[in-house]
Amino acid sequence: MAPAPREIIRQVLFVCIFIFGRFRVECETIHYSISEEIAIGSCVANFAKDLGLDVKALPSRQARLVAAGNGEHFLLDLKTGELLTKDRIDREEICAQMDECIIRFELLLQNPLRFFRAELAISDINDHSPQFPEDEFILKIPESTTVGTRFPLESAQDLDAGENALQNYTLTPPNEPFVLHTREQSDGSKYPELLLVKALDREEQPELEFLLTAVDGGIPPTSGTAKVRIIVLDANDNAPVFSQSLYQATVAENSPTGSVVTIVSAVDSDQGRNGEVTYSFSQNAGKGHRAFQIDSLTGEIRISKPLDFEVTEKYELSVRATDGGGLSSHCKVLVEVEDVNDNPPEVTVTSLSTLLPEDSLPGTVVALFSVRDKDSGDHGRASCSIPDDIPFILKPIFNNYYELVTDAALDRERVSNYSIMITAVDSGSPSLSTRETVTVQILDINDNLPLFNQSSYTMYVTENNSPFLMIGALNATDSDSGQNAKVTYSIWPENNNSPFSSPFISINSENGQVYILKTLDYEEIKDFKVTAQASDSGAPSLSTNVTVYIVIVDENDNAPVILYPIQNHSASYSELVPRSAEEDYLVTKVVAVDEDSGQNSWLSYQLLKATDPGLFIVWSHNGEVRTSRSISDRDAIRQKLIILVRDNGIPVLSTLATLDLLLVDGFSEAHMHVPDSTEEEAHDDKLTVYLIISLALISFLFLVSISIFIVIKVYKKKQLKERSHCFGHFDDANNIPRNLLDVTGTGTLFQAYKYDIRLTDGSSNRGI
Questions:
Q1: Same domain, yes or no: 199 and 271
Q2: Lowest model confidence (mean pLDDT) among 51-60, 257-266, 485-494, 645-654
Q3: Looking at the structure, do residues 384 and 312 belong to the same domain, yes or no?
């Protein structure tokens, strides 16, 4: 048994859906339909079920509706996948009187990106009745009007569409002079028209009344009524006649208000008032007459409000010419609106990723947007572009949708954010353009090492320093941002066996300040080096090493040391000088060293004291001791020189070198001419004792004089205080008793004393 045709069609559709279901963008459009005025929150369709989507994945895939215009009346329930009504659905409000009311939108899924296009048709219900613009229409028709004359009546308006719109008109009661016809205009609207089928006779019937009823096609049908009153006029035998039954005009949509579109003209062969013609729009001219106005005397039709080709491409107007006797005739005016390029393209960003990691691969989708132009033809064709000097390109998807994708590797350290200007230009003349700026911020990743501002560091510290002394700071920067750019410092452990390395050094991990932990001695170590490391806080952390050289600066903390002559006094005399020595004879050389360095170790020599100051000199730069003249017989045999050896440091340190010299006639007979040293020493000791006794006596006399002077001063001061105390209780001179006697024996206080009592204690000393 062959399968039914319906089953075959269903199988074919299933195969097609399976083949094309893996495409990124769905090209098939899903169609739905609803009736207007359904309850708010009603389910229109179940997208998830119809498209075979996992309902649970809708939130994670960021499912949402993308629609322009009237899409705000609906919402997508992410929990059930249903399309629900969000507010009242009024077809007449959404689509006016369009025959088809269709809302187009897309279902957008991200991660991965997919589109599903859908159309929702809103069907009309019969919720509006036909309405006439007036309750009564009055027609003045001459009795001489010929049979067959047509009289268009005002049309009724019904906001519904389709079958629910106005369908026909009826006239009650039926009357033989007129027959009612329902006419249809080019835009589909219908208006009533009376056809005169029998000559009128005013004398027989001067007025006629009818009830005009407009009926729509709803179930049940609704209607609206208006009274038609016909007044039969006498003696106006000629109606106005237009020069053309149809006038055609073309006007650009950007024509200014008040521009003349065309001029209609009608003549009436009657004379007098019956021949005076006035012009007006008939109500059955449709909605178009609102965009125009007609001069009742000249017939000029002008633009009364701005025209828009995208709203209405052409207008059909009905013009009525009426003479003074009430006769009228009609003509049609067709106005075609020419499109001009007056609408720039519209750029609508549907999806945008404003934060983009800098390690994003080329081809990463940044934004999804669409471009639409309301104009038609070339005026409505638009193209998009972005600047060439950025690592992004535009990629068309379908119809008027584009993707903004990365085209090259990104580097946040070079450019941290991009303001991408999307330019849409149409093909009109002149062309119009629209610019939309998309801002993308590049997110940092830890792809840069910390860098020191120097390839190596040299820091100086003076020896004998205080512990925990800061001697400098390291500075490293990381071109990343946030935690990836936060730098910490540390000392890299050394693998050598040097005792002078990291135990001497500490570094502040936050600011890179370097500290010396111990007191250093230049004579023990002159320099050393350590390796410092700067690490960022990224994951994984990146680091850089740098060598830090520590140089110890010498301080003048060592006095010169005498190497020669030896200063241990083990021998009675150090040098022998022949009496035959001439001037500039080299007697000996003082040799000294200084453990310091630089100018702290530069030594100079000075003869500080000598037995015979004029006999010997010491050269300051090398310590050579030479004779300044020839030795004579009067010179003492024993010569003692005290030589000052000092360095060039700050402060200056020095050492004394004692040099004993013997003047001999010959080195072999030295013992024969040497006097007894004990005698000379005893003589010197006796002189020393005398000097000490003299000095002690002088000092004692000085101390006694000072003591006597101090005792006298103290005694006088005490006497003065006692005298002031006796009169201290009197406040002023008026209270001093007149009968007091002082030591002078005059019987009263002298004037100076009375004055002193009024002063303070400190002032009385100056008055006495």
A1: no
A2: 51-60
A3: no
Task: Please report the pLDDT score of residue 71 as a whole number.
Answer: 60
Q: Are residues 358 and 396 in the same domain?
A: yes
The pLDDT, as a whole number, for residue 25 is: 40
pLDDT of residue 512: 92
Cβ–Cβ under 8 Å, residues 661 and 639: yes
Residue 16 lies in a domain: no
The DSSP line for 386-401 is --TTSSEEEEE-STTE
Angle at 372 between CA 367 and CA 378, to 5 degrees: 130
pLDDT of residue 757: 30
* Closest of 151, 522, 165 to residue 322, by C-alpha: 151
- The strands making up 543-553's β-sheet, listed across from edge to edge, are 456-462, 543-553, 527-536, 487-492
Kindly state the percentage of the chain with pLDDT values over 90: 22
Q: Which two tokens stand for residue 678?
A: 């004990």
Give residue 289's pLDDT band: very low, low, confident or very high (50, 70, 90): low
- Could you tell me if 317 and 266 lie in one domain? yes
Give every CB contact of residue 312 below 8 A, 6+ residues apart in sequence.
288, 291, 337
Q: Among 397, 426, 443, which residue terminates a domain?
A: 443
CA dihedral 476, 479, 481, 485 (to 10 degrees): -20
- How high is the pLDDT of residue 672? 40
Question: Which of 80 and 417 is assigned the larger pLDDT?
Answer: 417
| CATH code where residue 540 lies | 2.60.40.60
Pairing of the two strands 64-67 and 102-109 = antiparallel
Q: Give yes or no: residues 51 and 104 share one domain.
A: yes
**Last residue of a domain, which of 384, 410, 443?**
443
Residues in Cβ contact with 140 at an 8 Å cutoff, skipping those fewer than 6 apart: 230, 231, 233, 326
* Residues 37, 125 contacting (CB under 8 angstroms): yes
For residue 750, the enclosing domain spans 727-767
The CA distance from 516 to 470, in Å, is 6
Q: What is the mean pLDDT of residues 590-615?
A: 88
9 inside domain: no
What span, in angstroms and rounded, lies between the C-alpha atoms of 59 and 53? Answer: 12
| Local confidence band at 284 (pLDDT 50, 70, 90 cut-offs) | low
Same-domain status, 34 and 115 = yes
Q: How far apart are CA 27 and CA 24, in angstroms?
A: 9
Q: How confident is the model at residue 332 (pLDDT cuts 50, 70, 90)?
A: very high
Top pLDDT among 382 and 735 is at 382
Count the neighbouring beta carbons within 10 Å of the beta carbon of residue 386: 17
Residue 655 near residue 642 (C-beta atoms within 8 A): no
Q: Is residue 486 part of a domain?
A: yes
What percent of the chain lies above the pLDDT cut of 70?
Answer: 82
**136 and 119 belong to one structural domain:** no
Q: Domain total for the chain? A: 7
Question: What is the Cα–Cα distance from 419 to 377, expressed in whole angstroms?
Answer: 32
Cβ atoms of residues 232 and 208 within 8 Å: yes
